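User: ABC transporter domain-containing protein. Structure?
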Amino acid sequence: MSENLLTVERLTKRYGQAAALDDVSFTVKKRERFGVVGESGSGKTTLLRCILGITVPDQGKVFLEEKEITHTSVEQRGIAYVPQDFGLFPHLNVEQNIAFGLKIRKAPVQVIKSRVEALLSAMQLPQEFMQRMPRELSGGQQQRVALARALAISPKLLLLDEPLSNLDEATKDEVLPYLRTLNDHFGTTAIFVIHTMQDAFDLCDRIGVFHRGRVLQIATPHELLGKPATPEVSRLITSVRQNQVPHV
Ligand code: ADP
Ligand code: MG
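Assistant: Predicted structure:
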């Protein structure tokens, strides 16, 4: 059986004349934490949306476990997405937010209840939080509820769009352990869009460096530091080089 969970093949998406994604190909292995890094406007969110199925690419294919899903509906892909603003439904409480995907899939009430309880404890959130509204939670707690909601449907692949960028430093430290242990605890494969190299190095097994809709290099944090493929990659990781080399 193949080691690969996701294959993206020559994906291109244009808006007018400009290509948000320009001939992008890469694979993500099962249980990998794959980072997508690049400056603002480099096509990171467009990539996630194409993989999820809410943006239709102009060209190229997406495969999940060798099966082509380029034209499969979002619901049937088994992929979960946590958008940059966490995407919690403001008018639903924590329990209803986490249960949402299971309800749509018509899971039995008892199954939903125990799944929500289990996810809350996995995210180390008290069971009393079930009745809280999203606005009554801190940023880090909202992020963890969003993660619980995404994991509720036991997705094959989890897509997280800049999970750290709306959090201050202290909250980031609160959330990082949950993101680090996703694969081990939930058997999940995850793609993280991250806009700082340091965070990507801390979190990801491999990183794809994006620039203007193209992939410049895909490598482990170690390889990226030691052997950047182009001057552009060097430039993008410069800020990290100046700091301490992270433990990778
Ligand atoms: P990133 O997430 O890396 O900041 P995006 O994927 O959001 O980048 O955007 C890549 C490029 O595509 C940007 O130039 C952006 O303006 C453009 N773009 C993204 N979505 C749309 C859209 N719905 N309509 C027009 N242009 C878009
Ligand atoms: Mg984005």
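Confidence is low (pLDDT under 50) at residues 243-248. The pocket of magnesium ion (ligand 2) is lined by residues 44-45, 161 (CB under 6 Å).
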